[in-house]
Amino acid sequence: MQVELLDEAPAANDIVLAIDACTDVPPSARISVSRAGERRERVVVLGDAAPSMYERTLALALAEALRDPATTSPVASETPPLPSPLSPLSPPPVALPALRPPIASNSFEVAAPSNNVFLRRSSTPTPFATLIFRWMPATETPALGISAGIDWSRAAAGLVALGARRTETLGTATLFAIAASASYDAVDLGSFATARISGELGAAIANGSPGPDAVGHTQAAVHAGLQGGVASTLAVGASLELQGFVGGGYAASLNIGADGQRIASLGGGFVTLMLGVAFP
User: Fold this and answer.
1) H or E stretch including 54?
2) Taking CA 191 as the corner, what is the angle to CA 190 and CA 196, rounded to the nearest 5 degrees?
3) What Rg value do the Cα atoms of the chain yield, rounded?
4) Which of 8, 39, 61, 157 is most buried per CB count within 10 Å?
5) What is the C-alpha to C-alpha distance for residues 278 and 189, in angstroms, rounded to an integer?
6) Which of 247, 258, 101 is nearest to 172 (CA)?
7) Residue of 43, 42, 41 whose CA lies nearest to 23
């Protein structure tokens, strides 16, 4: 096989078959075919052939590359192709503003007041006044009373005054009790009511007005009671609330007797109805 250098540039319609590079380890040669401005290449490995067959193997590869372009691979042009006018252009990159770390602040948010007109609780002390009706079924004694004090969120404290009067054939008996009271709204029952527990501790006094054939005495005793029930508050305006409570309980208090029988009492089991107002 004889390989010669080109003396001049080939014409546009010439076919140029060339060997561009050779290596010893492993024995190989890169051949190229230039046809109508298109260049194709192929690497021929001679390591599988006997050294005496190198020239024949290379000659066959050259002939095959010249005859069948599919045996070679196209070589990309060194100049990149221009973009197609129909291809969409990528938008230029947009610089995003840098994220700033959160700045610590000593400020805090105050929760807005609830719009619920029921169970509206004030975070400041709120005065209240209440009318009380109490019924002691064991002695069929009705009692009326008043209470006043301070509401503060779920808790309340104040004073309670109760009075009852009973007339029998032997005379008339009057009972009066005054006690300190405290209550707590333990569990909300939805958005309209709450379960309330309350207690009373004070003193009770009884005075009798006996008939002609009876003798009366004035007595005093400790008054202590515990009750539970359902309470609700209705906000009428920004400065007025209506309060209600219904429940029952038990009290240890003074009993009034006549002719060996208990005829009136502020003690024992009782039921209570309370209606009042508060001024937030």
Assistant:
1) helix 54-67
2) 70
3) 55
4) 61
5) 21
6) 258
7) 43
Contact call for residues 41 and 72 (beta carbons, < 8 A):
yes
| Closest by Cα among 199, 200, 220, 216 to 208 | 216
**From residue 167, how far is each of 106, 177, 260 by CA, in Å?**
69, 18, 16
Are 146 and 130 contacting, i.e. CB atoms less than 8 angstroms apart?
yes
Which is it for strands 255-258 and 219-237: parallel, antiparallel or unpaired?
Answer: unpaired
Does the CA dihedral 101-103-104-108 come out positive or negative? Answer: negative
pLDDT tens digits, 199-219? 999 999 988 776 666 666 778
pTM: 0.54
Q: To the nearest 10°, report the CA torsion of 258, 263, 265, 268.
A: 120
- Main-chain dihedrals φ then ψ at residue 217, nearest 5 degrees: -135, 150
Entry field: residues in the chain: 280
User: Token digits for 277?
Assistant: 């107002």
What is the number of H-type helices and E-type strands within the chain? Answer: 1, 14
Q: What angle do CA 62, 63, 69 make, to 5 degrees?
A: 85
pLDDT in tens, 135-147: 999 888 999 999 9
Question: What separation in angstroms does the CA of 232 have from each of 210, 211, 275, 277?
Answer: 43, 45, 10, 11
**Max Cα–Cα distance, the chain, nearest Å:** 163
The phi, psi pair for 57, rounded to 5°, reads -65, -40
